[in-house]
Amino acid sequence: MTIYNSGYRTTKNEATDQGTDGRHWTHTVHVIVSRKREATVVERDNLVDVEEREWMWLGALLERVLLSDIAQCSLLFAVDSTYLTSPLLSILVSLPNPRQVVVVREADNLLKVLWSGEQCGAYVFLLHNVQPLLTFADQHYRAWDYKGKYVVVGISIEELLDFTLTKKGKKTQHIIGLVQSGPVGEWHVYMNHLYSRKRVMHLSTWQRSRFTHLPNLFPDKISNLHGATLNRGTK
């Protein structure tokens, strides 16, 4: 006859009713374990699917930013080992922009970047550990494009604030931070302020394939001070 126990199907033959049969119960345990293993495989596959979709949605967000807002700029991708082997980088390097890829393990690796000061340059940082970027942003002051457009992916809001307060960050007009929120496929988009005590502001939220409202990611912050107060010194 057939017995159902905790969602697992086991089989018990008539001989078992008459006494304990070690070989039979060994077989039964084997069936239960194999069902649990199948469930584990399904759960693992579901996690892989979620990770792949997360890469896909983040790739769609970056494509939207890079193709629509800085389509004419040359691109730099500064990546660590995690992003280097991710599907995301394969998506990004297929974009038509001229590009450079630099692997970042320590701050001095960013000295390899071709910092563009005369033409439009866009710099995308894909770093699980942003400390090399924070360190570099407080040294080698000529190795930087202060007019460039910076996109930092996966940073926390606290790390983004730290970046805007570095010696280079304070003088950089365009910094965008993509901060992952709780739900899968959702990213908060923040922009730096140059002349405000409020160093960053929330612009919009990316939900899988679209913004909640269309943001202006790289506005002119020099001619338009966006309500900032300037203090005038007199002699």
Structure report:
The chain has 235 residues and is α/β, with parallel strands linked by helices. The chain folds into two domains: 2-48, no CATH class; 53-211, Rossmann fold, CATH 3.40.50. The protein contains five helices and ten strands; from the N terminus they run ββαβααββαβαββββ. The strands form two sheets. The protein has an eight-stranded mixed β-sheet with strand order 4-3-5-6-7-8-9-10. Helix 5 links the parallel strand 6 (149-153) and strand 7 (174-180). It is globular. It starts with a strand and ends in a 24-residue tail after the last strand.
Count of distinct structural domains: 2
Principal-axes geometry comes out as globular
Written as H for each helix and E for each strand, in order along the chain, the element string is EEHEHHEEHEHEEEE
Are there runs of 5+ residues with pLDDT below 50, and where? 1-47
Largest sheet: 8 strands, mixed
- Overall pLDDT level: 78
Residue fraction in strands: 15-25%
Using the CA coordinates, give the radius of gyration: 26 Å
* The CATH topology of the largest domain: Rossmann fold
Q: Report the strand count.
A: 10
Overall CATH class of the largest domain:
Alpha Beta
CATH level-two architecture of the largest domain: 3-Layer(aba) Sandwich
The helix content is: 25-40%
What structural class do the secondary elements suggest? alpha/beta
Distance between the termini: 100 Å
CATH superfamily of the largest domain: Response regulator
Number of discrete helical segments: 5
Widest beta sheet: strand line-up: 4-3-5-6-7-8-9-10
